[in-house]
Write the structure tokens for this entry.
Amino acid sequence: MNELNHVAIIMDGNGRWGLKKKKSRNFGHIKGIKSVETIVKSSLIKKIPYLTLYTFSTENWRRPESEINFLFDLIRKSLKKKINKIIKQGIRVNIIGNRKGLPKDIVKIVKLIEKKTLKNKKITLNLALNYGSKEEIVNACNKLVVKKNKKIDLKSFENKLYTKNIPDPEILIRTGGTKRLSNFLLWQLAYTEIFFLDKLWPDFNENDFNKIIIKFNKIKRNFGKI
């Protein structure tokens, strides 16, 4: 059985799911929250230490303003509503991404929930908000360039990433039928096992999650060795 410390997920297909049900894209985003709750609960049961969800990318700003506002309102309400449950479940919430571009009240909520869940140890839930991997890498480089005469190696570089002190994912799941990484954890996914699913995110369930982990455990992971 392969060691599993970190699962990352690109939750694709909410909008298409909503339209498929002859409703709005926003309806799909609401239903997507249920899948998030299911997978967080399943990860807790499986004792997976880290779960990272691609929540809002730097490219998502290109969407219609009405949808962006709805997404942030959904994030805002979900965090406020679930904060007590999150604390009781032993979940530590960690936000990765560029906070400077986020609405001020979202940043305030983020800081509060990070502070209140700081000592929780059952699982760390990383929410990638205003996250773009290329920006993350450039940002890390700029931080290192400032420090003259400092040797740049893997460790010093990784210490400047948003994912500092977080193990790289062993599994990446992308729903929605698209087979690309979409600027998500490009550095961290170097040796990750990638699973692309045609299912749209609101249809993704615990059984799908279990099947992926079973497949993962059957993979021989050599990391360059024979």
